[in-house]
Amino acid sequence: MRALPVLLALTCLSAVAPAQRFFRLPSAQTLRPGQIDVEVFSERSGRGAKEGVFGFGLGQGFDARFRYEQGRTGRRADTFDIGYSLATPVRGFGTGLGLGFLDAANQTRDGRRGYLVATFLVEGTDDVTSPITADISFGFAFGRHTSPIVAARFPFGKSVDAVAEFDGAKINAGFRVRPIPYLGLSLMARNQGPTFLGIGYFGRF
After folding, report:
1. Are the C-beta atoms of 100 and 112 separated by less than 8 Å?
2. Which of 3, 122, 150, 176 is in the most buried spot, having the most CB atoms within 10 Å?
3. Which among 91, 99, 93 has a CA at the least distance from the CA of 118?
4. Is 165 left (phi over 0), alpha (psi -120 to 50) or beta?
5. What end-to-end distance do the CA atoms of the chain give, in Å?
6. For the chain, what is the radius of gyration of the CA atoms?
7. Torsion-angle region of 73 (φ positive above 0: left; ψ -120 to 50: alpha; else: beta)
8. Residue 142 backbone phi and psi in degrees, to 5
9. Strands, DSSP E only, in the chain?
10. How far apart are CA 50 and CA 197, in angstroms?
């Protein structure tokens, strides 16, 4: 967790936080120019599996996410994703539509895959009648293998989110807690795989 001092420093420079995202799967709600997210995960048991992502808005509806995956054997894959928002989702009003490429460098076990997703922002209220928004995305990814992809984020108040996603092979599920603005602490479990602890920064630069 050496990234904690850097993430806290970035927090002090921020003004507006972007919408929260899923753990790994894309959304039609791309990052805007000046927005970034940085998140690192380490296997809870300490056996060596690690993952990380650095995403930023490119403008005109595009964003990019550079990421890495490292298994218990120490083998590391470095790659990036590219996303484009054809239509931005509007809370309680309009469906978003996005497309792009996962693992554009073709370095991971899943390989390069194109995707098309629809995203819905569902408005609700918490126990003190404050507005909250659930994110639901579904679509298809195609490439080395074609499969449906589904992801959902359900808030419990303003500081805790439950996140679940299915990429056609793996299920990731867990929680993200935001103790202060822009900082996220995550617990992510993977079916037939490790459980990860994560820390992330979601803000501006």
Report:
1. no
2. 176
3. 99
4. beta
5. 21
6. 16
7. alpha
8. -140, 145
9. 35-43, 50-59, 62-70, 76-87, 96-102, 113-125, 131-143, 147-156, 160-166, 171-177, 183-190, 195-204
10. 10
Has residue 199 got a pLDDT over 60?
Answer: yes
| Residue-level pLDDT at 45 | 78
Contacts of 129 (CB under 8 A, 6+ apart): none
Q: For the chain, give the number of residues.
A: 205
Cα dihedral 194/111/27/70 (nearest 10): 30
| CB contact at 8 A, 86 and 111 | no
Distance CA 102, CA 115 (A): 7
pLDDT band for position 125 (cuts 50, 70, 90): low
Q: How far apart are CA 50 and CA 129, in angstroms?
A: 38
| Beta-strand relationship, 50-59 and 76-87 | unpaired
Residue 133: what pLDDT?
82
Residue % of the chain over a pLDDT of 70: 86
Instruction: Answer yes or no: are the C-beta atoms of 11 and 184 closer than 8 Å.
Output: no
